[in-house]
Amino acid sequence: MPSAAATAILTAHGQPSAPQAQEAALARLATEVADLLPAWEIRSATLSSPGLLEQVTQDGALVYPFFVANGWFTTQVLPKRLQGFRYTQLAPFGQDPALPQLAADVLNRELQRQPPMSGDKPALLLAAHGSARGPKAAEATERFASALRSLLPDHQLLTSYIEQAPLISDVARDLPDTSLCLPFFAQSGNHVTSDLPNALQEANFKGRTLASLGSAPGVARLIAEALQSAAANRKA
Questions:
Q1: What is the residue-wise DSSP string for 17-35?
Q2: Which domains, ranges and CATH numbers included, belong to the chain?
């Protein structure tokens, strides 16, 4: 177990237009992680709160990016914001090798709650952000989807995006009413609360939309285990 001086910073994009809600959500997640790592100090800051990340960071900290992809924010924005600090940056949440199993557990629980099927078999719709500026976001989603498909071989799993093709509004159209939509997002900002519902409404999607994957049970434990592993590797 790391010493009491072990410090980790959870950071996420947040919501620039209204940062308070996502800042508070990330702080609650940090508290859950801290409950699992009582010898650690777990702090949090979204990029949308000016200066907060720099305020809570200290030399030697582990920085955990609560992001889906290893894209612009994790490779460019974070290093620039933390220039001058000595820190270890972990792989982002969406690339944790344990995440597909967590997602499969979420979907299996929801599928078991479905009433007995009398029509078409439900499809599983993975709704993600994507990016019009580069391929990394979609590549991360497709890698995740490939791993998830291997854990759910009896179900059709489709990927779809807000900012690039294939668009959610196109993929969700004509799916069975028993289908499930899983938002592949770390936080539940405007993309999850506004853009995604609008796209599903445009598609006349009749299935159920689950909470964003970042709010699923077990996420705090997944983060805690990633931090412990990173600390052990740093000591080795």
A1: TSHHHHHHHHHHHHHHHHH
A2: 7-93+217-235 (3.40.50.1400), 99-215 (3.40.50.1400)
Residues with Cβ within 8 Å of residue 104, at least 6 apart in sequence: 148, 151, 152
The pTM assigned to this predicted structure is: 0.93
| Per-residue pLDDT tens digits of the chain, which is 236 residues long | 344 459 999 999 998 888 899 999 999 999 999 999 999 999 999 999 999 999 999 999 999 999 999 988 999 999 999 999 999 999 999 999 999 999 999 999 999 987 766 567 889 999 999 987 888 899 999 999 999 999 999 999 999 999 999 999 999 999 999 999 999 999 988 999 999 999 999 999 999 999 999 999 999 999 999 999 999 988 76
